[in-house]
Amino acid sequence: MTVQLQWSDVVRKVLEQYPPEYFGNIDNEVHAQLKNFVFEPKNGKYNPLVVEQLLWDVGNRLDRCVTYRREANELVIALVKAEMDYETYQKTRLIEDELLHLQVRQAQSELERDGFANAVSAFQAGTTAGEKLADGFKRQAEGFAKSSDVTADAEKRRGELIEERRRLIDELTDRLHLRLRGSGSAHNYADRWKRVVTLLRQDVAIAYEKALCAQSTLVNLLGIAGLTFLPAPWPAEQNETNGKIGFLDRFVLWTRAALDLLDAKTQREMSFDLVIPFVSQLTPLPGDAALFKREEFASILAKDRVFNFNLPKGPGTSILDKFVSLRLQGVGLSFSHRFTAENSDSEASYQIIERRNREAPKYLVGTAWIEPPKLQVADVPFYAPKIAVGRMLNFEGPGSPSMVPCFGSSPRGSWRIELGQSLVQSNDSKGDVDHVDWGVADTGRLWDIKLHLSLVGEPA
User: Fold this and answer.
1) Alpha helices by DSSP H, 276-404
2) pLDDT tens digits for 365-401?
3) Start-to-end CA span in the chain (Å)
4) Residues 105 and 166 in one domain
5) CA distances from 405 to 50, 328, 381, 388, 402 (A)
6) Residues 138 and 276 in one domain
7) Does residue 152 contact residue 106 with C-beta atoms inside 8 Å?
8) How far apart are CA 151 and CA 366, in angstroms?
């Protein structure tokens, strides 16, 4: 009775020939990579504020992981097929040899040849009256004998070629089988599998950490409802109790759901710009106070050039209260050189002021460092990186300031802006300008600074 092996038994028999670190279950490889990972928001290496970038990278890496898994499974199939082909060849080669040799008629041809040779001798010895008939049989037997000689030689050579062919096939088959374990060989499916799984484990680890980082922002900052938290990884043995699905597939489904919910939210959002002057009022409406008084502004410029402030509450910034999940997209700086003389109506003062305004630079080159407010995500403060602005345009001139990307930070909270020395160096070397009675402290190049904000949020 023939015992039929199941495919799983065949695969197990083949894979048992290799060390245990090869050809493991992909779900178990993923679990082994992630099971000891502990997400610490305070010490995370990724910024949760750039949630869109995080999720898109997670999706791309998981796409690669699925491709790696398919390639790894195909390598297992190729290896099992190669090993089974070799084993089948080893077990059937003797049978095939015997079948081929049975087709060789060398022995039969030799018997026919001997029989015809004997017939020729018998016909030659005949002395009866039917000599003519005997002579015909003799000639016929001679022809059969010659034919049998040729056939016997051919069959002998055929048997020799069968043996030679078998020897060559044995040699080539053994060499090909050795390549299955040859270092660097394209047929070394075990090493190729190991390399593919190493890439898979690296990508799934990075994707998992980024997903946990983005998850806090999605739920706690953006307030996206309907998104379940990403579960802890589980081994292949627990797939049955986890919806008959492996963790990698569950991870893919979670990421797709998160991207879909984020996309739906961003489609409800709108972008707008807001300009916050330092000295001037944002609007002339009552209740709109400037960030800094003129004397305070000049004093800071003369000392450390560091401005610390919160955005004021008032009509000019009331638009910020009309949005939820409000966050920065970009920041920029500009300056104003529009001077006025508060206590002088003389024509000379007016002409000096006009000349000063005409000679105002179109831009200032230097470095300003902007630190946006920190943001609380699940009770963990996150600080956006410092933003460097290397050029400030004159707000009164043509063009608009260059906006530096600043994804995710909130506009509400403590701002810190430090101006480089070159941005505030005095440009008052025109002689008579220094003697104008401005009525306030002279601020050199800078009469006012404006903070430009690019914002996005969902209308409340």
Assistant:
1) 294-302, 347-358
2) 778 899 998 776 556 666 667 888 887 777 765 556 7
3) 77
4) yes
5) 11, 8, 20, 10, 10
6) no
7) yes
8) 101
Q: Indicate if 175 and 276 belong to the same structural domain.
A: no
Nearest to 418, CA basis, from 326, 265, 308: 308
Ramachandran bin of 76, using left for φ above 0, alpha for ψ from -120 to 50, beta for the remaining angles: alpha
The enclosing H or E element of 132 equals helix 131-178
pLDDT value of residue 433: 37
Q: Whole-angstrom Cα distance, residue 411 to residue 325? A: 11
The neighbour count for residue 34, using CB atoms within 10 Å, is 20
Domain extent for 157: 90-181
Strands 387-394 and 306-310: unpaired
What's the Cα-to-Cα distance from 48 to each of 323, 371, 409, rounded to whole Å? Answer: 20, 17, 10
Rounded Cα distance, 227 and 212, in Å? 13
Q: Which helix (H) or strand (E) holds 323?
A: strand 323-336
Token pair 């700086």 is found at: 333
What is Dmax (Cα atoms) for the chain? 166
> What's the number of domains the chain is made of?
3
Residue 119 and residue 209 in one domain: no
pTM of the model: 0.70
Residue 275 CB partners (closer than 8 Å, separation 6+) = 282, 450, 451, 452, 453
Residue 36: Cβ-neighbour burial (10 angstroms; 0-12, 13-18, 19+): exposed
The burial class, CB within 10 Å (0-12 / 13-18 / 19+), for 125 is: exposed
Task: Provide the CB-side half-sphere exposure for 66 (13 A, CA).
Answer: 11
